[in-house]
Write a structure and sequence with these properties.
With 247 residues, this protein is an alpha+beta fold. It has nine helices and five strands, in the order αααββααβαββααα. The chain folds into two domains: 2-172, Beta-Lactamase (2-Layer Sandwich); 176-236, Orthogonal Bundle (Arc Repressor Mutant, subunit A).
Length: 247
């Protein structure tokens, strides 16, 4: 059991974070797994749990957690507009609260945490790019639940976790851009096919055929692509006919 709770070496840590990015297709799933892995890696999993806060357009939200109870603790900070996690993100520093019973800086958050049976917390900023900001929140049911070694490790860990998170976001953005491009190409092809059909049926120019499609789209209050798809389907006698591109 001791070996299972022993923090991984830096090499194993980096390998695991890279695998997490590469093997998890959905960023939300990746973040939840990152929160669970952080709770196990950075503290005793029997008494600690973790969440990840993301701030976009000045609005904080919990985007992942190892346990649902972390959300209530995070939201108490969001409601008050302050707390250890928000401070860590805004000031880009590690914020350690060794004993919440003696903490006076954030009374609203402290009251909620003590009621939930939390004794100590550790918050660390995650370095992102662009307008978004993020932080890793660790909560322990014990006072002084995080040792000096935990704090040193979390600083190293946050660096690698930040890189993994940035990579995951970029991969997600590329996948989303690719999907939009394929959809746009499919729409364009469907419209071009419908235009050709109308040109052949009405012996008209491409511009005239395009105008006919647009008038039909406006009259029926349907998207141009949907009108075009109905034209193609009417000729092929297949309501499920579709154009597609191999990714």
């Amino acid at each position: 059991m001791a070996d299972e709770l022993r923090p991984p070496s830096q090499t194993l840590l980096v390998d695991h974070l890279q695998d997490l990015v590469l093997k998890t297709e959905d960023v939300k799933d990746m973040l939840d797994e990152l929160a669970r892995f952080s709770a196990v890696t950075l503290a005793d999993p029997a008494v600690a749990f973790c969440s990840i806060t993301l701030i976009q357009r000045k609005k904080p939200v919990t985007v992942a957690r190892s346990e649902d109870s972390a959300v209530r603790l995070d939201e108490s900070q969001y409601s008050a507009g302050d707390g250890p996690c928000l401070t860590a993100i805004r000031q880009q520093v590690v914020v350690h609260v060794p004993d919440l019973a003696n903490e006076k800086r954030w009374p609203a958050y402290t009251a909620t945490a003590l009621e939930a049976g939390i004794g100590s917390s550790l918050s660390v900023p995650l370095l992102l790019e662009g307008e978004a900001e993020a932080g890793l929140n660790l909560y322990s049911t014990r006072s002084h639940g995080f040792t000096g070694d935990d704090i040193s490790m979390v600083e190293t860990y946050s660096y690698h976790a930040s890189k993994a998170l940035r990579l995951a976001v970029r991969i997600s953005q590329l996948a989303e851009a690719k999907a939009h491009l394929i959809a746009a190409m499919e729409s364009r092809t469907t419209i071009d096919l419908a235009t050709g059909i109308i040109m052949a049926q009405n012996r008209c120019s491409q511009d005239t055929a395009t105008k006919i499609l647009k008038i039909a789209s406006s009259t029926r209050n349907l998207k141009l692509r949907d009108i075009a798809a109905s034209v193609v389907a009417s000729v092929s006698h297949d309501p499920n006919v579709r154009t597609h591109f191999d990714a």
